[in-house]
């Protein structure tokens, strides 16, 4: 008799299964290996059974962090990351991550237990009552509810296909408590399960679209390629490299596309960003969007020279979202780049040397200007001294996955720390949200087996800080570095109106390292770049959960980092 089946008393005898087992069997049939979750009614037993069945369950302290873990697991694996939560409040906590996954095009499935339909729909006040499906619908790519055990197989199959096909995104799956205990014939149950065949089918671009794009690229005098995190997601790293190198065009990696080709690659224009955005005449977007992160493709950032945009994207609606796309190429990046490479033939002329040399010169100038600042060993540390140390560490250990959030900590680390391998930089994504840190750090090492260095602003860390207990509990090779400048943006604001502290400052001289020690991890207080470097190297060598409190000058940092311009200004504010 198979595990989880039982004989019913009386004749005729039949083997039974139930909702619990069918959900687990359906997930396993579709190669789900890990669930990120917070237990509670009605999913506690479900998680125990999942663990017993061989699925790895990472049990978190807050659903939002479990959700961010699932979302980034989806990004790293091209399979939906699974997050499980309890009903109403747990579901709502997970919802931020589901919306985040959808916005970032990460495949993820949020599965939440829910209370009974009969009671919810009559609004009779059930335990944790909420019409979760209705709430979720506006925040994700698709939302489904399963009411009958016999539909579990098809429900999970739909959720998986919806998450990963086309433009990936978040899917909500609503499982009312009663479903888990529903019983059905084991044989019929087994037959009802669906293994999703070809969940993300290739989308081949039209040949005339490829030709149109190549014609535009060929005619360019100052071409630029922008690589986005869609290109990282696609996991066609060799094709990306071949295409970029064959084209000879300078490339600019968006934040999470860094490392697709090394930031030190001769064609990388990362250190000449403003110049290439301004001066280019043809811009080819590969898995990147012209959203706020690229000033919507217009305005000062892009200069006065007229631009022509080529765009490769799996989502047809993305074309012309902000500016005219003269050469839209709709398809998956692997199929598109394959088509481009074959249409380019054996000989392809590099862009004018005048342009590539100008980019190179600008880049070298900027790198040289930055270099001395990164070598300072000042106490208290400034951002450049601290990041200079971490930059060397990533250079020496390019397999390490860098997780990064904060304001100044994010903006400066993005520019300063070179990345050498694909999908080794995970950050705040499209929304620029704070709170992804510990969830992403946990999933990154769980999914890849690689060590993680999480570089966190002290404020950003606060959103997910309790998960250091999770890191210690699962003994994960995660080294968290907190850039502690005593506050949000800076620790120097003063409230002159009352005895209350200013809204942006935290307890001065806080020792975040003690938090790690409380759970059996290694905590270190580092006051100079040298100390910081030593501590991080030790942590990465030992693989022990470590938290380093990097003491920064409280006056280091600027308001909102590089995006202070997005703050509205009161017309009445005293100058
Ligand atoms: P970035 O922030 O790096 O610019 P975005 O998340 O804004 O990246 O853009 C990623 C784009 O990549 C999205 O428009 C998405 O539709 C697209 N995309 C994701 N996966 C693929 C894929 N496999 N093939 C083609 N396009 C993809
Ligand atoms: Mg700070």
What is the H level of CATH, i.e. the homologous superfamily of the largest domain? Thiamin diphosphate (ThDP)-binding fold, Pyr/PP domains
Number of domains: 3
Alpha-carbon Rg, integer = 25 Å
Mean pLDDT score: 96
How would a crystallographer describe the biggest sheet? Answer: 6 strands, parallel
CATH topology of the largest domain: Rossmann fold
Beta content comes to 15-25%
In the CATH classification, which architecture of the largest domain applies? 3-Layer(aba) Sandwich
Strand order of the largest sheet: 4-3-5-6-8-7
Q: Estimate the global geometry from the Cα principal axes.
A: globular
Q: Which hetero ligands occur in this complex?
A: adenosine-5'-diphosphate, magnesium ion
Helical content stands at: 25-40%
Structural category: alpha/beta
Low-confidence segments, given as residue ranges, are: none
Our measurement of the CA-to-CA distance between the termini, rounded to an integer number of angstroms, reads 79 Å
What's the CATH class label of the largest domain? Alpha Beta
How many β-strand stretches? 20
DSSP summary: helix tally? 22
Brief characterization of the structure:
The protein folds into three domains: 180 residues, Thiamin diphosphate (ThDP)-binding fold, Pyr/PP domains (Rossmann fold); 155 residues, TPP-binding domain (Rossmann fold, 3-Layer(aba) Sandwich), CATH 3.40.50.1220; 200 residues, Thiamin diphosphate (ThDP)-binding fold, Pyr/PP domains (Rossmann fold).
Walk me through the structure:
A 6-stranded parallel β-sheet has the order 4-3-5-6-8-7, with helices on both faces. Strands 16-15-17-18-20-19 form a 6-stranded parallel β-sheet, with helices on both faces. It is an alpha/beta fold and 575 residues long. It has 3 domains: 13-192, Thiamin diphosphate (ThDP)-binding fold, Pyr/PP domains (Rossmann fold, 3-Layer(aba) Sandwich); 207-361, TPP-binding domain (Rossmann fold, 3-Layer(aba) Sandwich); 375-574, Thiamin diphosphate (ThDP)-binding fold, Pyr/PP domains (Rossmann fold), CATH 3.40.50. It is globular, with a radius of gyration of 25 Å. The mean pLDDT is 96. Helix 3 packs across helix 18 and helix 16 runs parallel beside helix 22. It contains 22 helices and 20 strands. Strand 19, helix 22 (529-542) and strand 20 (546-551) form a beta-alpha-beta unit. It binds adenosine-5'-diphosphate (ADP) and magnesium ion. Residues 104-105, 167-168, 228-230, 233-234, 254, 256-257, 287-289, 291, 293, 313-315, 318, 332-333, 430 line the site of adenosine-5'-diphosphate (ADP). Residues 104-105, 167-168, 228-230, 233-234, 254, 256-257, 287-289, 291, 293, 313-315, 318, 332-333, 430 line the site of adenosine-5'-diphosphate.
């Amino acid at each position: 008799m198979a595990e989880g089946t039982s004989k019913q008393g009386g004749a005729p005898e039949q083997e039974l299964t139930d909702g619990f087992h069918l959900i687990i069997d359906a997930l396993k049939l579709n190669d789900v290996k890990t669930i990120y979750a917070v237990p509670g009614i009605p999913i506690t037993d479900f998680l125990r059974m999942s663990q017993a069945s061989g699925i790895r369950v990472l049990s978190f302290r807050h659903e939002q962090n479990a959700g961010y873990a699932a979302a980034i697991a989806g990004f790293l694996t091209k399979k939906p990351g699974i997050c499980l939560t309890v009903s109403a409040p747990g579901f709502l906590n997970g919802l931020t991550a589901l919306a985040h996954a959808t916005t970032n095009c990460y495949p993820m499935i949020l599965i939440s237990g829910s209370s009974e339909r009969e009671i919810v729909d009559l609004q009779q006040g059930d335990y944790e009552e909420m019409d979760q499906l209705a709430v979720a619908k506006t925040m994700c790519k698709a939302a489904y509810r399963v009411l009958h055990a016999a539909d579990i197989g098809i429900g999970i199959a739909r959720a998986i296909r919806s998450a990963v096909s086309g433009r990936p995104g978040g899917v909500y799956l609503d499982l009312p408590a009663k479903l888990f205990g529903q019983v059905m014939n084991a044989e019929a149950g087994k037959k009802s399960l669906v293994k999703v065949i070809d969940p993300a089918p290739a989308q081949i671009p039209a040949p005339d679209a490829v030709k149109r794009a190549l014609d535009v690229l060929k005619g360019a005098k100052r071409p630029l390629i922008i690589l986005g995190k869609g290109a990282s997601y696609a996991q066609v790293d060799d094709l990306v490299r071949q295409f970029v190198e064959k084209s000879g065009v300078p490339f600019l990696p968006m934040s999470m596309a860094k490392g697709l080709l090394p930031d030190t690659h001769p064609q990388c224009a990362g250190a000449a960003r403003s110049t290439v955005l301004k001066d280019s005449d043809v811009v080819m977007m590969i898995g990147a969007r012209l959203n706020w992160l690229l000033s919507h493709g217009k305005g000062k950032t892009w200069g006065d020279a007229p631009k022509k945009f080529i765009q490769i994207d799996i989502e047809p609606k993305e074309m012309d979202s902000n500016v005219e796309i003269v050469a839209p190429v709709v398809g998956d990046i692997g199929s598109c780049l394959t088509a481009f490479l074959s249409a380019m033939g054996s000989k392809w002329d590099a862009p004018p040397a005048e342009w590539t040399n100008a980019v190179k010169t600008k880049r070298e100038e900027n790198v040289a200007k930055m270099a001395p600042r990164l070598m300072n060993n000042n106490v208290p540390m400034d951002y450049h001294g601290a990041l200079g140390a971490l930059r060397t560490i990533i250079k020496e250990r390019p397999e390490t996955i860098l997780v990064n959030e904060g304001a100044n900590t994010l903006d400066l680390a993005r520019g300063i720390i070179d990345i050498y391998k694909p999908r080794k930089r995970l950050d705040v994504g499209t929304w620029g949200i704070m709170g992804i840190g510990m969830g992403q750090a946990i999933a990154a090492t769980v999914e890849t087996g690689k060590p993680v260095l999480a570089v966190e602003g002290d404020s950003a860390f606060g959103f997910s800080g309790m998960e250091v207990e999770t890191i210690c509990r699962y003994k994960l090779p995660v080294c968290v570095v907190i850039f502690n400048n005593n506050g949000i943006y800076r620790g120097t604001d003063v409230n002159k109106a009352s005895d209350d502290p200013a809204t942006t400052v935290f307890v001065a001289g806080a020792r975040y390292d003690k938090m790690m020690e409380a759970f059996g991890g290694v905590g270190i207080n580092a006051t100079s770049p040298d100390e910081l470097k030593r501590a991080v190297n030790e942590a990465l060598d030992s693989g022990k959960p470590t938290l380093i409190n990097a003491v920064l000058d409280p006056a280091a940092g600027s308001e909102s980092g590089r995006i202070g311009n997005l703050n509205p200004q009161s017309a009445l504010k005293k100058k």
